[in-house]
Amino acid sequence: MDVKIQSERLNLWYGKFQALRDVSIAIRPRRITAIIGPSGCGKSTLLRCFNRLNELIRGVRTSGQIRLDGKDIYRPGNDLTHLRKRVGMVFQRPNPFPLSVFDNVAYGLRVHAMRRGVDLEAAVERSLRATRLWDDLKDRLHGPALGLAAEEQQRLCISRLVAVEPEVLLMDEPCSALDPIATGHIEELMQVLAEQYTIIIVTHNMQQAARVSHETGFMLLGELVEFGPTTRLFQNPADKRTEDYVTGRYG
Amino acid sequence: MDKHARPFDKGLEELQKKLVHMAAIAETMIDKAIGELVTRDEHVADKVPEYEDELNRSQIEVDELALVLLATQQPVARDLRFIVAATKINSDLERIGDLVVNITENVRILAQQPRLKPLIDIPRMADLARKMVRESVQAFLGEDPKLAQAVIMNDDEVDGLKQQILRELLTYMIADPRTVERALALILISRHLERIADHATNIAQDIIYMVQGRDVRHPKTAREKPPTEKPSTESQP
Questions:
Q1: C-alpha span between B80 and B76 (Å, rounded)
Q2: Do B151 and B132 touch, CB atoms closer than 8 A?
Q3: Is B236 in contact with A192 (Cβ distance < 8 A)?
Q4: How far apart are CA B41 and CA B95, in angstroms?
């Protein structure tokens, strides 16, 4: 079985509080994997481990391994910026930089010095086309990104990631701040992106997880309770805790 | 399970109650139809058409309720399997009602002529069919796959009885053509009873699916590996 990114017996503590317990999960390439679970179950914490974003928080301690293409991402000497290029993240509230649309997308390319030999304008166009923003924004590339509507801002954040040619896209409740129609658009976009990238989405919207993902993991109190094909998890979950959660009887 | 019944749970409970009631009607109908056959009292099965109307009305109510629950609650897992099973059981129970009406028509034909032979096998078939309907609904209420499995096993016995009845009546018909009308009526009754048993078997299979998530229909043509993958998405234009 092909594995793109995985955790092995991952534990994480915020100070004394253990947020992740022995989480072992294997994410397959070019699929959408959803992580669901009640608030506080550790799903966002897990997501942030995949690009070591948790290290920006004081007092965080981890044990266990995370491998990207089989290689340990915690290996000493690992270039974090390079990791975060390969494994990009989209957040619940869109966070475009206070720059123009063009500069937002080009930002990563400039940081990673990728522009040598790269036609910046072509790269920006390609990224904006990938998120279906090009037609709407091609005449407003130098307008402020913060002036865009929420859905467009979120697409822009995805364009920004796509520009640096990532391999894995981490999405932390990417549609929570969007209305149902915008959510539908972003979900369609995810399906297209999944042909090229490995996508891991954390969502509290179970119907979304059921709609878009190929595999789903259910987390509870820091533990990965169940992980498997989405169609099975929502038709006939193996664990009673999963069943209680997806049928709305938990809590 | 949480302590407070959500409207959704009340909906599921109502679905269950309606189906149990339908099954009770179906059982009563079988009882009356065969009762009239055995006693040759033409009033025993008088109420069968009324019962059938009630079954038909309930069928519509069950389907409507199921659809509303599906549309408004987006159920998954066990709840979804329950509702899907309920709509199928609904359909099987209504068909059982139709079959009893057919039996009654043949019973009326027989009541107008002298009895062809003592009735042994048909009442046996009817008892078995009635038992299967009752037990399949018990299995439904009790979420009991073992009982459901036992119902499925009974189907062979019913099929055997049907064959036996056919063979016996064939000899009558060959010996004396004047018996043909009555023999045919009896054969048709046995066929209807066999179909009732088939529907009870379907109900039992649906219960196993509902409780365990296993589809146990058509074992001979079962696929080797059940599909678990989503179909691949096409590129957006």
A1: 5
A2: yes
A3: yes
A4: 25
Model pLDDT for residues A54-81, shown as the tens digit of each residue:
989 999 999 999 999 999 999 888 889 8
Task: Please state the ipTM of this predicted complex.
Answer: 0.71
Of all residues in chain A, what percent are helix, strand and coil, respectively (each to 5)? 40, 25, 35
The pLDDT tens digits for A211-242 are 999 999 999 999 999 999 999 999 999 999 99
Residue owning tokens 């149990």: B20
Which of B2, B80, B230 is the closest to A214 by Cβ?
A: B230
Q: Searching chain A, which residue's CA lies closest to the CA of residue B3?
A: A249
Q: Which of B80, B227, B235 sits opposite A192 (nearest CB)?
A: B235
Please give the single-letter amino acid code of residue B50.
Answer: E
Please name each of the domains of chain B with its CATH number.
7-215 (1.20.58.220)
Q: Look-up: residue for tokens 């407003």?
A: A140
Q: Give residue A109's Cα distance to chain centre.
A: 20
**CB-based contact B76 A230, cutoff 8 Å:** no
Cα separation, A37 vs A225, in Å, equals 10
Q: Is B77 helix (H, G, I), strand (E, B) or coil?
A: helix
0.95 surpassed by pTM: no
What torsion, rounded to 10 degrees, do the Cα atoms A235, A239, A244, A247 define?
-10
3 state SS of A167: coil
